[in-house]
């Protein structure tokens, strides 16, 4: 029964569309009008400024980006410091003596600072 109804409806409402010049002209005009309206709406909204509210997720992404940037910066600094000229110098008597004196001065300054407190 249902198939008979749909078949009869198809016969009534279904008509093949014949592509002629007037149909093609109508389709092109519709596309042009749609494009014109779209461009007008774009020009109207182009000068309007909209602010994006800071959502918790957006704040989280910003903080993660800053953290990653800082970690990369510190990583490159540590890599540069570990390859410093002072560490690559050959171990001469003077350089070993200077390193030991610097270490002792640092320890003395640390002890004086914390013993005074």
UniProtKB/TrEMBL annotation:
Kindly state which keywords UniProt assigns to this record, in alphabetical order.
Answer: Actin-binding, Repeat
Which terms in the GO cellular component ontology are assigned?
Z disc
Where in this chain does the entry annotate a coiled-coil region? none
> Does the keyword Transmembrane belong to this entry?
no
Which Gene Ontology molecular function entries are recorded, alphabetically?
Answer: actin filament binding
Query: InterPro entries of this UniProt entry?
Result: NEBU/NEBL (IPR055297), Nebulin_repeat (IPR000900)
Q: What is the designated name of this protein?
A: NEBL isoform 4
One Pfam family, short name please?
Answer: Nebulin
Query: Is the keyword Membrane in the record?
Result: no
Upper lineage is: Eukaryota, Metazoa, Chordata, Craniata, Vertebrata
GO terms, biological process: cardiac muscle thin filament assembly
């Amino acid at each position: 029964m249902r198939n008979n109804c749909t078949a009869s409806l198809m016969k009534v409402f279904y008509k093949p569309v014949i592509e002629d010049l007037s149909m093609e002209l109508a389709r092109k005009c519709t596309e042009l009008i749609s494009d014109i309206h779209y461009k007008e709406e774009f020009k109207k909204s182009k000068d309007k400024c909209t602010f994006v509210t800071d959502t918790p997720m957006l704040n989280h992404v910003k903080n993660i980006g800053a953290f990653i940037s800082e970690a990369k910066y510190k990583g490159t600094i540590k890599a540069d410091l570990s390859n410093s000229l002072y560490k690559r110098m050959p171990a001469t008597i003077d350089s070993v003596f200077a390193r030991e004196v610097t270490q002792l001065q640092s320890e003395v300054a640390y002890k004086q600072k914390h013993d005074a407190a």
